[in-house]
């Protein structure tokens, strides 16, 4: 087995960041500073962060050879495997306000037909053979069956690679409903996604750690081995067979939270590739996420920018996972939620 990471971005994007001169005024006219465009989509961002740290990575995506995203990825020298499609890759917009508030406007994306989906599945199998990690990230494009991620998790098991998933809404619910044989080794929800999965309001999850951990335990009960719950300005939790750890992020000036969750996932994988235990994986995840949030647009941090940040990690518990019958009930909190969360 090599230390390779293979990412799939079924719905890639060109991320266009529009830097607003002040707070967004609905119905007004904003005079923008010059805008920037970067190749994006969650799996592409994970791959860019792994590559920036010198990791062995391949990113798999649907895009025509002359699509601007392919040209941009070539310029970055990012190893990639593309499946040609007729429709151009979507453009997603970020409205970036000077105080770091980001508003995302995501297009639906280029439809993926059965043939393209089949070709992506084959490409994933080819590259995942012998790899350490496979990452399935982001939304599914129009025309994709919602249970495709579940199918991929089941079939990619044969490659021997560990499987991480970061998605939201219907594809996330379909994955967790597909049964324990489709459960990934690592799931990276944020508080909004954990709320979608657990039915517990997001404000309760961010306000009370016991509530968040009870909701995380319901994911373990459905077969997910390790959960990296990112909570934006409130840090992150890592929960798995060895126990639960909580991290407090460093103080940073937030410039853009776009891609911070992807960089957190990359930080976890990089620490795992280096042989790090759970506390170190969480520390690296939070440092990568914070470093990314301190950069504009969906820029990924260098290892030096990450190393400059201090992250506190505390052990919450060291016993193993609860079984489906012993998962604790969700407890409700009336505490006011803490501000800040990571945005996709
Ligand atoms: O529409 P999706 O697939 O859910 O998310 C896509 C996206 O918002 O995610 C990345 C940030 O995490 C961006 O590069 C990209 O624009």
UniProtKB/TrEMBL annotation:
The keyword Kinase applies. Keywords: ATP-binding, Kinase, Nucleotide-binding, Transferase. Belongs to the carbohydrate kinase PfkB family. This is 1-phosphofructokinase. GO terms for molecular function: ATP binding; phosphofructokinase activity. InterPro entries: PfkB_dom, Ribo/fructo_kinase, Ribokinase-like, Tagatose/fructose_Pkinase. GO terms for cellular component: cytosol. Residues 36-304 form the Carbohydrate kinase PfkB domain. Residues 319-344 are annotated as: Disordered. Residues 321-336 have a biased composition (Polar residues). The keyword ATP-binding applies.
């Amino acid at each position: 087995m090599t230390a390779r990471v293979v990412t799939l971005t079924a719905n890639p994007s060109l991320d266009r960041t529009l830097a607003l001169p002040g707070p967004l005024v609905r119905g007004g006219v904003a005079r923008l500073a010059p805008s920037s465009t970067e190749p994006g989509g969650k799996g592409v961002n994970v791959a860019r962060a792994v590559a920036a740290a010198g990791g062995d990575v391949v990113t798999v995506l649907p895009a025509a050879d002359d699509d601007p995203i392919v040209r941009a990825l070539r310029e970055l020298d990012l190893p990639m495997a593309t499946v040609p499609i007729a429709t151009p890759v979507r453009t997603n917009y970020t409205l970036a306000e000077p105080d770091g508030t980001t508003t995302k406007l995501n297009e639906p994306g280029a439809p993926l037909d059965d043939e393209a989906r089949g070709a992506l599945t084959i490409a994933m199998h080819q590259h995942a053979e012998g790899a350490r990690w496979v990452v399935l990230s982001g939304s599914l494009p129009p025309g994709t069956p919602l249970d495709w991620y579940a199918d991929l998790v089941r079939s990619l098991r044969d490659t021997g690679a560990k499987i991480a998933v970061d998605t939201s809404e219907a594809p996330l619910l379909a994955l967790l409903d597909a049964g324990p044989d489709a459960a990934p080794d690592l799931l990276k929800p944020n508080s909004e996604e954990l709320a979608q999965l657990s039915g517990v309001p997001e404000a309760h999850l961010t306000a009370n750690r016991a509530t968040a951990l009870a909701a995380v335990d319901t994911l373990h009960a459905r077969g997910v081995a390790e959960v990296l719950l990112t909570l934006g300005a409130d840090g992150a939790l890592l929960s798995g067979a060895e126990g639960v750890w909580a991290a407090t992020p460093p103080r940073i000036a937030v410039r853009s939270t776009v891609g911070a969750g992807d960089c957190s996932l990359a930080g976890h994988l990089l620490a795992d590739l280096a042989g790090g235990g759970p506390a170190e994986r969480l520390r690296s995840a939070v440092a990568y996420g914070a470093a990314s949030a301190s950069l504009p647009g969906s820029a990924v941090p260098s290892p030096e920018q990450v190393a400059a940040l201090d992250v506190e990690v505390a052990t919450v518990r060291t016993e193993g996972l609860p079984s489906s019958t012993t998962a604790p009930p969700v407890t409700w909190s009336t505490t006011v939620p803490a501000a800040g969360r990571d945005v996709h």
